[in-house]
Specification:
Blueprint: E1 14-18, H1 21-30, E2 36-42, E3 60-64, E4 73-78, H2 87-94, E5 107-110, H3 127-131, H4 135-141, E6 147-151, E7 163-167, E8 170-174, H5 176-189, E9 197-203, H6 205-221, E10 226-232, H7 247-259, H8 267-271, H9 282-285, E11 293-298, H10 302-309, H11 321-325, H12 332-355, E12 360-366, H13 381-385
Parallel strand pairs: 1-12, 4-6, 4-9, 9-10, 10-11, 11-12
Antiparallel strand pairs: 2-3, 2-5, 3-6, 7-8
Pfam families: PAE
Main location: secreted
Keywords: Cell wall, Cell wall biogenesis/degradation, Hydrolase, Secreted
Length: 387
């Protein structure tokens, strides 16, 4: 007799876990697995709809087919990789793999949440890790036989832009929204239209993209499909830096303007915000998202520490340089500043956003590690995600 299907339950949760460097290293060692490489699918016909990368090359994704019980389940993962917010930085990006599929690797290793290894178990069988129980491991291996697609990132605007910039004979295409539409259209023809469960995920800039497309995916797939979304290290904060300037607001404001992002942001958020670019911040967008959502983020996210809380412009004398390179080199006052402002404000911003919706969860990990996904193993992530 077939095993009963697990119901998708999504309780509200806010979990904080502390992970030592030794523990992280031990977990990472357990992630060694056989390499699954998946070929690239290019969409050359998408150019007819204007769906092209920064340099005009076609969009692309990698798809590994599901089997057995996972044949009608789909995991879609946005690739991350930062942003560009002005013509010079976007022109430079267009000449790299971040702005052109011509320069991307044509084979991608599918590991972690994209793995096809059913024996993979990230929870160790000893000590505290065993007490974290195997619920996450069970949830994690549940994805091994799903249809798993990695959406390549080549627009520089978290899959949201819709404009063109011209300067003489030079052209930059900001077509992230159209790239998203083209890829989903192609995947619908390949079985996504028959899905019963879909998880939309992404890391960093890809994690940010999930906030913009979570509800849109649900609307496109219809009410019969269960859709949930996961942002890994994508909760970028509207936060003053150590010099009391808001550098990230300036950055996102210019990005939204240059790339024509505002037309694709959440309407409810736009109606309640004074400036469109505020809706590029998850803390303002999240309360308007109706689809169940889970957030995974480090309280000491490396990108946010280096570029939002202590950007180069805020530290002209380089007093934070050693601390940014090595957390062990941070002074007592610097640690106090980070714990008092960075950690508290991040946790507060996420928690306040979640209070206004009743079908989401969050894990904020108190760790310096750059191996973001490893930290979620110690939270009851599987239980919160409800897979």
């Amino acid at each position: 007799m077939a095993a009963p299907r697990r119901r998708w339950v999504w309780p509200v949760a806010v979990v904080t876990a502390a992970v030592t460097a030794t523990t992280v290293a031990a977990i990472a060692a357990d992630l060694v697995q056989e390499r699954l490489t998946v070929g690239m699918t290019l969409l050359p016909d998408a150019a007819s709809t204007g769906a092209v990368c920064l340099d005009g090359s076609p969009p692309a994704y990698h798809l590994h087919r599901g089997t057995g019980a996972g044949a009608r389940s789909w995991l879609l993962q946005f690739e991350g990789g930062g942003w560009c917010n002005d013509a010079p930085s976007c022109a430079e990006r267009a000449g790299t793999r971040r702005g052109s599929t011509r320069l991307m690797t044509k084979l991608e290793v599918f590991s972690g949440i994209l793995s096809n290894n059913p024996a993979m178990n990230p929870v160790r069988r000893d000590g505290d890790l065993h007490r974290a129980n195997t619920e996450f491991a069970q949830m994690f291996t549940d994805f091994y036989n799903w249809n798993r697609a990695k959406l390549r990132y080549c627009d520089g605007g978290s899959f949201t832009g819709d404009s063109i910039y011209t300067n003489g004979s030079s052209v930059l295409y900001f077509r992230g929204q159209r790239i998203w539409d083209a890829i989903i259209t192609d995947l619908l023809r390949k079985g996504l239209a028959n899905a019963d469960k879909v998880l939309l995920s992404g890391c960093s800039a890809g994690g940010l993209a999930t906030f913009f497309h979570c509800d849109k995916l649900k609307e496109r797939l219809g009410g019969a499909v269960t859709v949930k979304c996961l942002s890994d290290a994508g909760f970028f904060l509207d936060l003053n830096d150590i010099s009391e300037n808001n550098t990230i607001r300036q950055f996102f404001s210019s990005l939204v303007s240059l790339q024509g992002v505002h037309k694709n942001l959440n309407r409810d958020c736009l109606n309640s915000s004074d400036y469109p670019y505020l809706c590029f911040f998850p803390q303002y967008a999240l309360p308007n998202i109706r689809t169940p959502y889970f957030i995974l983020n480090s309280a000491y996210d490396v990108y946010q520490f280096h570029h939002i809380f202590v950007p180069p412009s805020s530290d002209p004398r380089g007093q934070w340089s050693r601390c940014k390179l090595d957390p062990d080199a941070c002074s007592t006052s610097q640690i106090t500043t980070l714990q008092g402002s960075c950690y508290i404000e991040q946790t507060s911003a996420r928690a306040n956003a979640l209070k206004r919706i009743g079908t989401s969860g969050m894990s904020v990990t108190d760790t310096w590690t750059a191996v973001r996904s490893v930290s979620l193993f110690l939270s009851r992530f599987g239980e919160n995600l409800g897979l």
